[in-house]
C-alpha cells in the first residue's frame, strides 16, 4: 500500500479486498494482520475482518490495529456466532475490491510482494479467474515445516481443479467479477468446505494461474488436525461440496464427470485396506521434518509493525 498506512482512506475503492475470518484468534491474528498491512503494492487494499463473536481478546487486538490503519482495516464483530460458512459469507458481502484475497486469522503472508505479483498477472490476463501460489506449512507445536503443492501446472483450467484441489486458501486471489458475489448459491452456507466451492465456481468462469513462489504460511494447529476416527466425517464433507457442485454445474459435463470421478476415487481410497492402517512416514520425510525444526520460521510481511 505504497508502504504507507495513510496513503488511502476508507472511502477509496480498493484494488484488493482481503477476507480474514476470525474466532478466538488472539494468539495469531496480529501476525495475520501484519502480513496484510505489510504488503508493498501500488494500490489500495481493504482488509475485511469478520470476528465470529469471539470470547477472547481478538476484538481488542484488532481494535488496536484498526486505530493504526483506519484506511485499510474494516472490522466487524458478529452479534452472534454464525459458524465458518456464515462468517465467510458475511465478510464477502462487505468486499469492494476488483480482486478478493483470503487469509484466515491463524495464517499469514510472509512475502510483501504477494499481492503486487498476483494483481500484475491478473491485470494483464483478463481471462484468468484466480491465481494461487505455493505455501509453507507450519505444524504447531512441533515447529516442523514443509512446502505445499509443488510441481503443479502453471496454467490450468477448472477441469484440473475438479480432479484435484491443490489450492491452499490463503494463497488465492479471485477476480471479483468472476466470483459473482451477488449470485452465490444458497448451498454454500451449508457446506463445511466453502473454500473449495468458491474455488470451483469461480474457476468455472475462467482460467487458473499457479506460482511456485512460497508467499504465505499455513498454520496447522493441533485442534485442526484430523484424527483417524474423523476420517469418515472428513470424507463426507469433501463429498458434500462436490455433490452440490455437480448439481450447480450440470450444464458443464466436462466438469461434472471429473467431479464424479473424484468422488468415486475418494470413496475407493477410504475403503481400501491401507486406509484402515496408520501409515508411518517415510524415512526421508522424517529427516526433512527434523531438519525443518532447525530452520528459522518465516516472518510476516509486516513484522516491523508487531513490536509497536
Amino acid at each position: 500500500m505504497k508502504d504507507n498506512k495513510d496513503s488511502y482512506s476508507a472511502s477509496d475503492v480498493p484494488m484488493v479486498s482481503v477476507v480474514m475470518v476470525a474466532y478466538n484468534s488472539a494468539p495469531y491474528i496480529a501476525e495475520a494482520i501484519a502480513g496484510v498491512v505489510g504488503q508493498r503494492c501500488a494500490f489500495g487494499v481493504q482488509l475485511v475482518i469478520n470476528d465470529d463473536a469471539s470470547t477472547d481478546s481478538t476484538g481488542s487486538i484488532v481494535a488496536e490495529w484498526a486505530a493504526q490503519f483506519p484506511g485499510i482495516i474494516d472490522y466487524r464483530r458478529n452479534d452472534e456466532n454464525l459458524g465458518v460458512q456464515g462468517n465467510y459469507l458475511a465478510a464477502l458481502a462487505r468486499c469492494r475490491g476488483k480482486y478478493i484475497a483470503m487469509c484466515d486469522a491463524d495464517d499469514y503472508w510472509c512475502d510483501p510482494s504477494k499481492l503486487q505479483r498476483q494483481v500484475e498477472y491478473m491485470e494483464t490476463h483478463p481471462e484468468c479467474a484466480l491465481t494461487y501460489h505455493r505455501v509453507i506449512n507450519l505444524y504447531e507445536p512441533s515447529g516442523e515445516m514443509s512446502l505445499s503443492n509443488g510441481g503443479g501446472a502453471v496454467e490450468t483450467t477448472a477441469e484440473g481443479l475438479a480432479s484435484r484441489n491443490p489450492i491452499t486458501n490463503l494463497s488465492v486471489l479471485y477476480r471479483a467479477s468472476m466470483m459473482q458475489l451477488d449470485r452465490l448459491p444458497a448451498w454454500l452456507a451449508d457446506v463445511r468446505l466453502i473454500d473449495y466451492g468458491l474455488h470451483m465456481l469461480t474457476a468455472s468462469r475462467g482460467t487458473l494461474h499457479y506460482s511456485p513462489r512460497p508467499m504465505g504460511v499455513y498454520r496447522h494447529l493441533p485442534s485442526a488436525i484430523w484424527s483417524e476416527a474423523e476420517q469418515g466425517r472428513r470424507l463426507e464433507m469433501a463429498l458434500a461440496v462436490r455433490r452440490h457442485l455437480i448439481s450447480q454445474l450440470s450444464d458443464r459435463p466436462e466438469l461434472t464427470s471429473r467431479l464424479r470421478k473424484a468422488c468415486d476415487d475418494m470413496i475407493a481410497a477410504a475403503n481400501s485396506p491401507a486406509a484402515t492402517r496408520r501409515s508411518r512416514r517415510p524415512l526421508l520425510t522424517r529427516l526433512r521434518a527434523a531438519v525443518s525444526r532447525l530452520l528459522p520460521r518465516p516472518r510476516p510481511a509486516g513484522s516491523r509493525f508487531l513490536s509497536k
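DSSP finds ten helices and twelve strands in the chain. The first strand starts at residue 16 and ends at 22.
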